[in-house]
Amino acid sequence: MTIGADIGIFVVSLLAGVIGALAGVGGGILVIPALTILFGVDIRLAIGASIVSVIATSSGAAAAYVRDRMTDMRVGMFLELATTTGAVAGALLAAVVAPALLYVLLGVVLLFSALQQVLRLGEELPADLHVSPIAKRLRLAGSYPDARLGAEVQYAAQRVPLGFVMMAGAGLVSGLLGIGSGALKVLAMDGAMRLPMKVSSATSNFMIGVTAAASAGIYLGRGDVDPSIAVPVALGVLAGATIGARILPRLSNRAVRLVFLPVLVAVGAETLLRGLGVGL
Amino acid sequence: MNPERFRTLVSGILIVGVSLSATLMLVGFAASLAVGWEGSLVGAAPGTSGLADFGSMGQSLLAMRPVGIAQLGLVVLIATPVLRVAASCAAFALEGDRLYAGITLAVLAILLVSLFGLR
């Protein structure tokens, strides 16, 4: 990469970080299409750069959530068994999968993330507090302080085996595409295990860094982490996500999602079409 | 270890790791704009091993090459969650929670195998 391209990559990654934070997705999922489509970067190097930026942003966000007691560290650690195993498999698989398939998958995950943003408009609290034997053995129940309700909210994990399998899938996608796959992790916790949305989001962020580290080591060893791409991407996405997180509370949540959802849909569609060989 | 101190420890590791890594990457990136990724800040011969070869990180650091500083930043970044898992494992063990100390140790093992064992 030439120096001009390095700075261009930094600026585009910064924008991806801001838009990702405002749209409620990670920066990595937007940065890969940006690098490959705008800068002609090889998709494997784009994935290697993205997975590193995912560690940076999720670790920064996780630090804050852990202090606020939103993160359930036992749920996180238990499910990391599934996500890291999946991530290792995904990173190994990425070496033999055709790039076209990677584009198709990335497009599908992007469109799914956009859909999830539409569906999650109402955040319900869990009704079922039944503790199954497996959840009891693993102590997958607890409470968190809800600022909006001004009360401590109790919860207990349901359908633990289903959640575990879905987490392995989320890890596989993360390792394969070099993204945090937060949308899939939240789906497993909020959808399958019926954990409160706030706990699911915070715990997902907590797990993303560890999941990404499992595949980042493999990408690094394979020579897919090129500092001239990975460094401007990581710095840009980290700065962008920080800026995005600062502006987000000042904007109405719904309005923000409505503005940025079309961006996700457009990038997702473009990426999908590129994989199918009909790139615009 | 009480849960409050555990949370402080975990969040502290994450903040220090990301800050240190971001600083190293920023210094490496800024230096690369001045002398190029494989140039040297102290006038040593330019590197030839390729930017993605982390095996030559030590040499690049000794010659003060931006690529070496950036690689160290990336290594610190990848090591941060690994360190967080190791600290969690120790904390669960201190608490006498053998089940979770074991689960965390298994996650740590997967991470170490992926970092050092698989290509």
Strand content of chain A: under 5%
Element-by-element helix/strand order of chain A: HHHHHHEEHHHHH
**Whole-angstrom Rg of chain B:** 18 Å
> pLDDT average of chain A, as an integer?
87
Largest interface, with counts of residues having CB < 8 Å to the other chain, equals: A-B, 53 and 53 residues
Q: How much helix, percentage-wise, in residues of chain A?
A: over 70%
Describe the fold and architecture.
The complex is a heterodimer of chains A (about 280) and B (about 120). Chain A is mainly alpha-helical. Chain A has helices at about 5-25, 30-40, 45-65, 75-95, 100-120, 135, 160-175, 180-190, 195-220, 225-245, 255-275, and strands at about 140-145, 150-155. Chain A has a two-stranded antiparallel ribbon with strand order 1-2. The longest helix of chain A is centred in the first third of the chain and has 25 residues, at about 45-65. Chain B is mostly helical and about 120 residues long. Chain B has helices at about 5-35, 55-60, 65-95, 100-115. The longest helix of chain B has about 35 residues, at about 5-35. Chain B is elongated and about 55 Å long. At the A-B interface, helix 1, helix 3, helix 4, helix 9 and helix 10 of A face helix 1, helix 3 and helix 4 of B.
